[in-house]
Amino acid sequence: MPTLHAEIALAQNNPFKAIESLQAAIPYEFGWPWAFPLYPPYVRGKAYLAAHRGSEAATEFAKIIDHRQIVVNQPIAALAHLQLGRAYAMQGDTAKAKAAYQDFLTLWKNADLEIPILKQAKAEYSRLQQIVSP
């Protein structure tokens, strides 16, 4: 339930309420056999992005990437790379952001080109490509 409440708070443009809602999910974020493991950190990461807290968002998305054997073929396994890229971009770390976007685009290289999130990711990556890394 905390994850659903957090998603509702995000839909209402209230990332701080979403973050607060997810506190109750921390002990269970690696999931139960019948639950979606690591979904709470994914939603928490989205909430941190919405709150412009890139560092905290990156930490949440890294949990998913670091435990990809748990999420296996769930959509968040690939989407965590995209969101990590967004978190790094928010922090101004262009090199890490580009690498995370590349990882996402590699995972989705055979996807339908008309999928909205893929089109958005490609546009964001293109804008990053125009930034010269230090």
Walk me through this protein's architecture.
The protein has 134 residues and is an all-alpha fold. It has one domain: Serine Threonine Protein Phosphatase 5, Tetratricopeptide repeat. Helix content is 68%, strand content 0%. The protein is built from eight helices and no strands. The protein has helices at 2-11, 15-21, 39-50, 54-66, 68-71, 75-91, 94-107, 116-129. α4 (54-66) packs antiparallel against α6. The longest helix is centred in the middle third of the chain and has 17 residues, at 75-91. The protein is globular and about 40 Å long. The model has no long low-confidence stretch (mean pLDDT 92).
| CATH-defined topology | Serine Threonine Protein Phosphatase 5, Tetratricopeptide repeat
Oligomer: single chain
Strand content: under 5%
Report how far apart the termini are. 43 Å
Main structural class: mainly alpha
Secondary-structure element string = HHHHHHHH
User: Number of domains in the coordinates?
Assistant: 1
- Residue runs with pLDDT of under 50 for 5 or more positions: none
CATH class division: Mainly Alpha
